[in-house]
Amino acid sequence: MSTSQQPDPRDRPARLTVGVVGAGRVGPALAASLQLAGHRPVAASGVSDASRRRAGHLLPGVPLVPPAEVLQRADLVLLTVPDDALPALVAGLAETGAVRPGHLLVHTSGRYGTRVLDPARRAGALPLALHPAMTFTGTPVDVQRLAGCSFGVTAPEELRMAAEALVIEMGGEPEWIAEEMRPLYHAALALGANHLVTLVAQSMELLRAAGVAAPDRMLGPLLGAALDNALRSGDAALTGPVARGDAGTVAAHVGELRRHAPQTVAGYLAMARATADRALAHGLLKPELAEDLLGVLAEGTVGPGSAGAGEDEGDAR
Fold it and tell me: By C-alpha distance, which of 101, 75, 105, 103 is closest to 89?
């Protein structure tokens, strides 16, 4: 469903009062986007000073109250707490009678579907799992980034149209995820996004150690092109010394990392092995070159005379 096609007015949820339980980076941004669609944020809860400042910035004039009072004031409640805290929060709200029949309860955890909301559902709540596949900064830019953002959506069939309408009103694109596939879906996103941050941060540290004054400027075009190529072509975009079977260059890399940044060696070797496996499987790495390369990766040491051998020509990656 495209964001360019507005849902039929009959399928759109009525204008709702909106509450946020957990004013981290996600909840206030989603509530602000719903406000732009005509809904009315009326309450939020937050514990830390940072979350209170964030709510005040993104939802000016919205009072900060305890979670149970958020549910008293709002028709649609966004439960935007960490994954591990969600089951206990839902159980506690249900046990204390804070949930009322007809409440739309929306959690934004990637890991869970709607089953985690069962205690609230038994109290009459309407459960939705709407997970934005986006990183959040806790600033107004997040509201803009929701335009075109995919949401992993899980909901009962009877709430399907309401779930889609809410996502589209926030500027997003609904992508349906089966309840039992939520952990795999979330693992896929974490593998790509969270680990990417670690890789980029390590790469910038190494470039600084090598004397590069502006590693972000150097990496920006390279990583942007690599990401675009990977999204377009998948494994066919693999390049660099591992995909070419340049065992000497890889051995030299490992040796330099051991000397200057030993904490990065394990990650380098793990990613190089995964890259070699994929390059072999897709015919990019020649089998006759793979043996020496895999030997270097298995040992994780610099072989005799390998430093400086097999220089990586013609490609910065």
Answer: 105
Structure confidence by residue, pLDDT tens digits, 91-103: 999 999 999 999 9
What is the rounded (10 degree) CA torsion for 160, 165, 73, 38? -170
Question: What value, to the nearest 5°, has the Cα angle with vertex 33 and ends 27 and 38?
Answer: 125
Show the DSSP H helices in the chain as ranges. 27-36, 49-58, 67-73, 86-95, 118-122, 141-145, 160-169, 182-189, 195-209, 215-233, 241-244, 247-260, 265-281, 287-299
Give the pLDDT confidence score for residue 300 in this predicted structure.
Answer: 67
pLDDT in tens, 14-37: 689 999 999 889 999 999 999 999
Cα 258 from Cα 265, distance rounded (Å): 6
Residue 116 has, within 13 A of its CA and on its CB side, a CA count of 27
pLDDT of residue 19: 97
Question: How far, in Å, CA of 204 to CA of 79, rounded?
Answer: 36
Q: Cα separations (Å) of 262 from 42, 245, 296, 306?
A: 51, 23, 16, 19
Q: What is the mean pLDDT of the chain?
A: 90
Contact criterion met (CB below 8 Å) for 173 and 189: no
Note the pLDDT of residue 51.
85
**What's the distance, Cα to Cα, between the start and end of the chain in Å?**
37
Helix axes of 160-169 and 27-36: crossing angle, nearest 10 degrees: 90
Mean of pLDDT values over 59-80? 96
Q: What is the pTM of this model?
A: 0.83
Tokens representing 119 are 């205690």
Residue 204, token pair as written in the block: 């910038």
